[in-house]
Design goal:
Receptor-associated Protein, three-stranded antiparallel β-sheet, transport, GspF/PilC, Protein transport protein HofC, transmembrane, T2SS_GspF/T4SS_PilC_CS
């Protein structure tokens, strides 16, 4: 995909009529040659920008499901791709689907055509499409793959939502507290300095805390700016990604969600490949290629190496230390009984349902808890600001 460029062209066909469209090619010369092969005489050829957001998984998964439906309806693969290209609203997808159809008409296999677009179609797609081509069940493999991708995306969104909500509430709370510390408390503090009566302990403590926050504001801002500048460099750094994943897995609240999501992804892909007739080691390689986290890739690579050296699947997974006892027990049962695909499917469903329940439960608990914490913090600040006024009124009443 990195070598492909999107070109907008206009030209004359053999009958002299003006035609226009988009095409994918490595460079301008290759694009011109491609148009000549289609018996077109190009007049203009301009490079167009590519919208990376259109390559996200939800777009490709919807197309895969649609393609499987067309194949079951009796259309050939090139016909289905051409029909999808005519109906798709995004022009760069239209060009890509037509490019794939042309590759198939030239004798190339579907999996080989998809392999030229790694940023659009992940390795799992290639393995499943290749299996469908070998078994003659391409439509069934496409349906299974689309269902798996949709389920994993929904689970990922639910986990992210459960983890994002506390961050939003805490950020808003911090913003309110800072606004009161910098804008409201100084005004009240200046007024109270004119009083000759001692301030309550709560008010003195809040004012002292506000002074500390104000004194530490500059160092904190410097650290925040340095962290913001370093984040783009660390985001793709393998060492940082490993450390972050270990930190998340050891967290008491976030850890079970992160682990459950990863295990659901691993066992779902393994179950999908097993039911499609792909060997376990090849399916494990597909899982490794679909994972973006270096830590989990290394865990599965070690398991793959131990299985290759003769260890059982359950022993290799147990040695990694990241799979709970239930996983090891069910995998061992599947190895002994010869029903490994069913056990993997049960594990995938179990971890998916468990993670969804944990995400829903976490959201249900955190919503009222964070509201209570936020109310207490803001309430303490308000009471601390107005408490001296009440004490002053009592003092004046006693003096009268």
């Amino acid at each position: 995909m990195a070598s492909k460029q999107l070109w907008q062209w206009s030209g004359l066909d053999e009958s002299g009529e003006l035609q226009s469209g988009l095409c994918w090619s490595e460079n301008r010369t290759a694009a011109m040659l491609q148009l000549y092969q289609q018996r077109l005489h190009p007049l203009t050829l301009k490079r167009r920008p590519v919208r990376r957001a259109l390559w996200q998984a939800e777009h490709s998964t919807a197309l895969l499901n649609q393609l499987a439906t067309l194949l079951q309806a009796g259309l050939t693969l090139p016909e289905g791709l051409q029909l999808m290209a005519e109906q798709h609203p995004a022009r760069q997808w239209q060009a890509l689907l037509r490019h794939l159809a042309q590759s198939l008409e030239q004798g190339e296999t579907f999996s080989a055509a998809l392999q030229q677009w790694p940023e659009v179609f992940p390795p799992l797609w290639l393995a499943m499409i290749r299996t469908g081509e070998l078994t003659g069940k391409l439509d069934e493999c496409c349906f299974k793959l689309a269902s798996q991708q949709k389920a994993q995306r929904e689970l990922s969104l639910k986990v992210k939502k459960a983890l994002r909500y506390p961050l939003i509430i805490l950020s808003l709370t911090a913003a309110v507290v800072l606004a009161m510390v910098y804008l409201v408390l100084p005004e009240f503090s200046a007024i109270y300095q004119t009083f000759n009566t001692p301030l309550p302990a709560l008010t003195r403590g809040v004012i002292a805390g506000a002074n500390i926050v104000q004194q530490c504001a500059l160092p904190f801002m410097v650290c925040a700016l340095l962290a913001s500048a370093a984040f783009p460099l660390l985001r793709n750094h393998a060492g940082w990604l490993r450390y972050r994943q270990r930190l998340l897995l050891t967290s008491p609240i976030i850890g079970p969600l992160v682990r459950g999501q990863r295990l659901s992804q691993v066992f779902t892909v393994l179950s999908l490949t097993q039911r499609s007739g792909i060997a376990f080691l090849q399916g494990l390689e597909s899982v490794i290629e679909t994972l973006t986290c270096p830590y989990w890739r290394e865990v599965l690579q070690r398991a793959h190496r131990e299985i290759t050296e003769g260890a059982s699947i359950s022993a290799a997974l147990k040695e990694s230390g990241e799979f709970p006892s239930l996983c090891i027990q069910l995998v061992r049962t599947g190895e002994v009984s010869g029903a490994l695909d069913s056990m993997l499917d049960n594990l995938a469903q179990h971890h998916s349902e468990q993670t969804q329940r944990q995400a829903d439960g976490l959201a249900a608990v955190l919503e009222p808890l964070l509201l209570v914490v936020t109310g207490i913090i803001i309430g303490v600040l308000v009471v601390a600001m107005y408490l001296p006024i009440f004490h002053l009124g009592d003092a004046m009443g006693g003096a009268g």
